[in-house]
Specification:
Blueprint: E1 2-10, E2 14-20, E3 26-33, H1 40-56, E4 62-71, E5 74-75, E6 80-82, E7 92-93, H2 95-99, E8 107-111, H3 112-122, E9 132-137, E10 141-147, E11 150-151, H4 188-200, H5 218-226, H6 230-254, E12 258-262, H7 270-283, E13 293-296, H8 304-314
Parallel strand pairs: 1-4, 4-8, 9-12, 12-13
Antiparallel strand pairs: 1-2, 2-3, 5-6, 6-7, 9-10, 10-11
Helix pairs in contact: 3-8, 4-6, 5-6, 6-7
Length: about 325
């Protein structure tokens, strides 16, 4: 009988659910709007229904062996989601405790970037690595850090929040309410803010002047850069400089063999990788040079969010 894991990714807008085997093959997936369920118990009802629906599509020779969940502000030790800024369920939500009443299966939950790091090790390009870092560049900046073959959780499962390192006193506000966090500059949202800063500070022609902030997204900025748009190209250069500089700082505390970039902004390819690599090399201390690789995630063209959740199950088997 073939073993299958349920992978769940809880986002502020969408929840993604899929069935994945240990090789990373997907046996069905779907999504639904997280925002449609402001009451937590109603959300669990819907998530249960979606998992049961996917299970019903499997042949009889498949067996579900566990459920893995990636979620913002998830506490791996306690099985909770705690004070997530982008979710409607506030304070501390006892996710695993309540969900276990619905499924007689092992259930694991962790921060979505930590899930991505485990997924990179199992499904991606970090198969043979014991020291690496995954940086997720989506609405915010997440990070999962693996050292000596172990994911770093820290004292209370909140280690590795590199997106909230303060890089500029009194700088841009981020989702936590703090000012000057890295993710306010380096993320899909951050590069949009950089574009609008550059548009306001320059008279240069740019196709990006045709978009509102709400309508602008990473694919548009990437296409503009490819078309020679100077504002788009400078936005990528500035973003890459900040990311490269701070990756050089992060290397100093964990010395990874590689840093993997994942997420919407990473899909811009050379536009984010080339400046990031340039400034990473510039700011690295001499004894780290040529010892740290900057690489795209091996899950870039896969359903990384679902694979990351499912990887939590395989990590415990």
């Amino acid at each position: 009988m073939k073993s299958i894991a349920v992978g769940v990714d809880i986002g502020g807008t969408l929840t993604k659910v899929g069935l994945v085997d240990r090789a990373g093959d997907l046996y069905g997936n779907l999504d639904f709007r997280t925002t449609d369920f402001p009451k937590f118990d109603d959300y669990l009802d819907e998530l249960q229904n979606k998992i049961e629906f996917l299970k019903g599509q499997l042949r009889s020779n498949f067996s579900i062996v566990g459920i893995g969940i990636g979620a913002p502000n998830a506490n791996y030790y306690r099985g909770t989601i705690e004070h997530a800024a982008n979710l409607k369920w506030k304070n501390i939500v006892p996710f695993v405790e309540k969900f276990r009443k619905r499924f007689d299966l092992p259930i694991y939950i962790t921060n979505d970037a930590n899930a991505a790091a485990i997924g990179e090790n199992i499904y991606g390009n970090a198969h043979d690595m014991k020291d690496f870092m995954v940086i997720t560049l989506g609405t915010g900046l997440g990070s999962g850090i693996v050292s000596n073959g172990k994911l770093i959780y820290g004292y209370d499962a909140q280690a590795g929040e590199l997106g909230h390192v303060l890089i500029k006193e009194g700088g841009r506000q981020c989702g936590t309410g703090r000012r000057g966090c890295l993710e306010a500059y380096v993320s899909s949202t951050g590069i949009k803010r950089t574009v609008f800063y550059l548009l306001s500070d320059s008279m240069a022609d740019s196709e990006l002047r045709n978009y509102s902030f709400r309508d602008l997204h990473g694919e548009i900025i990437t296409k503009a850069a490819e078309n020679g748009d100077v504002i788009a190209q400078e936005a990528f250069r500035m973003t890459g400089e900040i990311l490269g500089k701070w990756l050089a700082n992060f290397v100093a505390f964990s010395h990874p063999e590689a840093v993997f970039l994942l997420g919407g902004l990473a899909k811009s390819g050379k536009w984010i990788f080339e400046p990031t690599e340039k400034y990473l090399d510039q700011y690295l201390l001499p004894y780290y040079k040529n010892k740290v690789k900057l690489l795209p995630s091996g899950m870039m063209d896969k359903n990384a969010a679902i694979l990351g959740g499912a990887a939590l199950v395989w990590d415990h088997m």
